[in-house]
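lol ok so funny story. i was supposed to be doing the assay writeup but got distracted and ended up predicting the structure for this chain instead. priorities right. anyway since i did it might as well share w the group, maybe its usefull for someone
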Amino acid sequence: MKMLMVGAGGIGGYFGARLLEKGEDVTFLVREGRKKKLKKKACASTAGTEIYTSSRLF
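and the output, tada:
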């Protein structure tokens, strides 16, 4: 299922990352400034030894 997270702050980022861990197709809708920060640092979640990332930022 495709999911759209409106915002990638503390809550949107957390739940979006948890959905990524479960294999969902997640896209984040963020402001331009936040988009630059996330592209610089990457949007990632770790679970054990695996790292889940999303490059879909709009």
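Helices lie at 10-21, 32-41. The chain has one domain: 2-54.
back to the writeup now i swear
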